[in-house]
Specification:
The structure is a homodimer.
Chain A (H helix, E strand, L loop, with lengths): L4 H14 L3 E4 L3 H7 L11 E5 L5 E5 L3 H6 L2 H4 L1 E5 L5 H11 L7 E4 L5 H10 L4 E4 L1 H9 L3 H20 L10 H15 L2 E9 L20 E10 L2 E2 L2 E7 L6 H18 L6 H14 L11 E3 L6 E5 L12 E4 L2 E4 L3 E4 L2 E5 L4 E3 L8 E3 L3
Parallel strand pairs in A: 1-5, 3-4, 5-6, 10-18
Antiparallel strand pairs in A: 1-2, 2-3, 7-8, 8-9, 8-10, 11-12, 13-16, 14-15, 16-17
């Protein structure tokens, strides 16, 4: 991702609109988004300090300075290094003071900053109130630019390509973990990083967040494969369902219900529709088919520089969709002790509807047994 | 790691000694340590609530419940699930109230809990003060039991085994990233997880936290290889230095200085010695050799269920070492634009000195060029 002073300036604009006087950002997707610096989350403090007015600065441990400079951060803003025996929060306080932030300030902390740092900030910097960093960052990140959507389209095509190769890996007798490693390697060929690999076979498919385990694939298994990576700073995420040999009883019918539900949800997407109405579109069909209690999660999550971000496609979220939002549409049905299924595509909200950023065949794939 | 009510009870004892009324623990090494539950860090709240008196409870999102139950957590303590449309902090407040925690309480938050959750806890739970979770957890984790040291010994032997295979991977023309992938695969054969892989060749070796890059290995390169994984819940971490063909000018001498410094630091380890004196032992030798300014980091970090934890072997830390502490001893010398070197072993403090948990040859390894 290119470093960009424009994004920092836009963050400062939003801060002024919202009455936030300074924003503190540790190693996170927000730091990559604002500064193009992919920092390691370490016990040594790295913190971007963005005052609403004036110049942002990056406080980094001395031994991370070469990486920070290599990222281009030092070309954009002041980089202040602290040594092993210094208190980094004194540097942070200096930057805040130099920007003229008053004691009555409202300060925002990036959502994933570790609590140890949050508590130390609260001790070191006088403030009237502390608010979540999303107060500022949500508005910047929730609607994607054309360039960002193009990046998500590319990474979507990359994960589709991995799914096309999955059937060749699903052979009876192979442990899920072994299949998972092969998939991770395929993801790396098409991405810069593997974010996660779920290979949930047979009854494991009934646990939506099962990763991989020791269970060996068997003929007649349904297998949920949900995978994602990062390419050029943007994330992919795509779920398809496979059966080894013939589908177990009832599975093909369940999958049809899910396909219909997923189509209905995607068809419901357009600017102005509430996020929860997309959830409702999928859920209604699943409920009508008698599987309502088995659809235990929301229909989707936003995606961009992070796998899971705003907007969440969930009951209770009445936020209207806006052209340029990108999120997953992934209804699922989970039958304890038997099997599960989930169909997931990333979509981008267009002027008149939705563009699917995943196009690999979403029908149930039967893998022939040799 | 086995789930263990004993560790939770011990945490409650420490809380009562320190005047902490409740401890909140999200997905983290502490959660694995206390409960044996390896939870994913997600935007949906998973939180272990430990009151100083009474029964702890685990608050989990409904769709993580199967994983929480599979971990054995539900056999130990109450598991409370929340659904997609509920406020999880109401569950947390219920547990706190049920345990009789008063409004004047001192509450501790696990060090790596995301700030978004920390701020929501501060809003939802009345308290007199908030303190870092390490107030409680440090004392539990800093001194290892014999079983824990045995686990670290096993994982130390595992990473040594990987290092023995590294010379076979270092061929001129191969990009660092490709070598890194091969190493990651070797780590996985000997561990459950890869934690990090640093392959820093030529001038990249001068950046202590360089991971891997596109640079291709060349004849005459010095290569710093610093790698670690997790096996049975405990972490390995070991650094060795290689040269491809003949060492570049001055490198063998620099490496000798480092070897002497590392030996001196390990020799300084015994109960009662201050952590900073171990740092001093290494630093003194490096300074005397004229490389003082090139040793830009502390000498070591504790290791256990986390790669980096207390105690830190750094100037300013006058904490006396105690039998059973485990940490890295890893002096390094970094010459900008040329090369770097670091020698790292994990040691355990014994009754009379130190046991090295890494024993693979720490001399400079020359890899012959075919």
């Amino acid at each position: 991702m290119p470093a960009s002073l424009a994004r920092l300036r836009r963050a400062q604009e939003v801060m002024r609109e919202r009455g936030v006087d300074a924003l503190f950002v540790g190693p996170s997707a927000d730091l990559r988004y604002l500064l193009g610096y992919h920092a390691l989350p370490l016990e040594r403090l790295t913190l971007l300090v963005v005052p609403a007015e004036g110049d942002p600065a990056l406080v980094v441990p001395e031994l991370e300075a070469p990486r920070a400079v290599a990222s281009g951060a030092a070309d954009l803003i002041d980089v202040r290094t602290w040594t092993e025996t210094e208190d980094p929060f004194r540097h942070v306080a200096d930057v805040v003071r130099a920007a003229g932030v008053s004691n009555g300030a409202i300060l925002a902390v990036q959502d994933r900053l570790w609590s140890a740092f949050t508590l130390q900030l609260q001790e070191s910097i006088p403030a009237e109130g502390w608010v979540a960093g999303t107060t500022v960052m949500r508005e910047l990140r929730i609607v994607k630019t054309a360039d960002e959507i193009a990046a998500l389209r590319r990474v979507g095509a990359a994960i589709d390509e991995v799914h096309r190769q999955v059937p060749g890996l699903l052979r009876p007798g192979r442990p899920e973990s072994e299949v998972g490693r092969d998939i991770a390697e395929l993801i790396l060929r098409e991405h810069d990083e593997v974010n996660f690999v779920i290979v949930a076979s047979g009854p494991n498919g009934a646990s939506p967040h099962h990763e991989t385990g020791d269970r060996r694939l068997e003929e007649g298994d349904a297998v949920v494969v949900d995978i994602g990576g990062t390419g050029d700073g943007y994330c992919s995420d795509n779920t398809r369902n496979y059966v080894i040999g013939r589908a177990p009883e009832g599975y093909a019918e369940l999958h049809e219900v899910l396909l219909t539900a997923q189509r209905a949800a995607v068809a419901a997407v357009r600017p102005g529709v509430a996020a929860e109405d997309v959830d409702r579109a999928a859920r209604g069909i699943i409920e009508d088919a008698g599987y309502g209690a088995a659809f235990v999660h929301r229909t989707g999550h936003g995606i961009g520089v992070e796998e899971h971000e705003d907007p969440y496609i969930v009951a209770g979220n009445d936020e209207p969709l806006v052209e340029g939002m990108t999120f997953s549409v992934e209804p699922g049905i989970y039958l304890d002790g038997r099997y599960g299924a989930r169909i997931e595509d990333i979509v981008a909200v267009t002027a008149s509807g939705a563009e699917r950023l995943n196009t690999v065949d979403r029908e149930l794939t039967e893998v022939p047994v040799a």
